[in-house]
Amino acid sequence: MAKKVAKKATPRKKPPLELHGSCGCGSVTFTVKGPVNDVVWCHCSKCQRFHGGPGAYASAPRGAIVFERRDGLSWWDASPTAQRGFCRQCGSSLFFSDSNEPTLSICPGAFTAPTGLKSRAHIFMGDKPDWYQVKDGLPQHAAY
Ligand SMILES: [Zn+2]
Ligand SMILES: [Zn+2]
Questions:
Q1: Strands 37-42, 119-123: parallel, antiparallel or unpaired by DSSP?
Q2: What is the value of pTM for the model shown?
């Protein structure tokens, strides 16, 4: 067993400066250059349909996202201002884009772990279905 080194300062765990993401089949791969915003869980009915459950979203400035592969990427016009990005080969949910927002929302399940991200809030709790409960102590908002 290695000798323990006492008094050695533990370096503070910093979030990675870039995160890599991929769909399930690899037809969409991307890198986010720079910090990624922590995760918000959305419980609205539209996310329930798209994800088959609540939607988890990290986010980053649009210009920080660089695609290595995007030949599987399709966008569904979910509303006049919102688009949902997914892989048309494997069906992975990947992105949510609102043209009013400077950031792109990214489904954090696409990221290679460890991400250094945390969950920070729940939104659209007023739409949450009855088949699960949220008891993690994070802030909950009825709408946005
Ligand atoms: Zn795919
Ligand atoms: Zn939603």
A1: parallel
A2: 0.87
Token pair belonging to 30: 């991307």
Ligand 2: centre distance to CA 51 (Å):
10
Q: Are strands 73-77 and 37-42 parallel, antiparallel or unpaired?
A: unpaired
- Tens-place pLDDT, residues 8-45: 555 555 556 899 999 999 999 999 998 999 999 999 99
Enumerate domains of the chain plus CATH numbers.
Answer: 18-127 (2.170.150.70)
Using the mean position of ligand 1's atoms as its centre, give its distance from the Cα of residue 49 in Å.
19
Dihedral sign for Cα 112, 114, 116, 117, please: positive
What is the per-residue pLDDT for 18? 93
Structure confidence at residue 13 (pLDDT): 56
Q: Give the Å distance between the CA of 86 and the centre of ligand 1.
A: 8
Alpha carbon of 70 to ligand 1 centroid (Å):
9
Q: Which residues surround ligand 1, an ion (CB under 5 A)?
A: 23, 25, 27, 72, 87, 89-90
Question: What pLDDT does residue 17 have?
Answer: 80
- Going from the Cα of 94 to the center of ligand 1, the distance in angstroms, rounded, reads 9
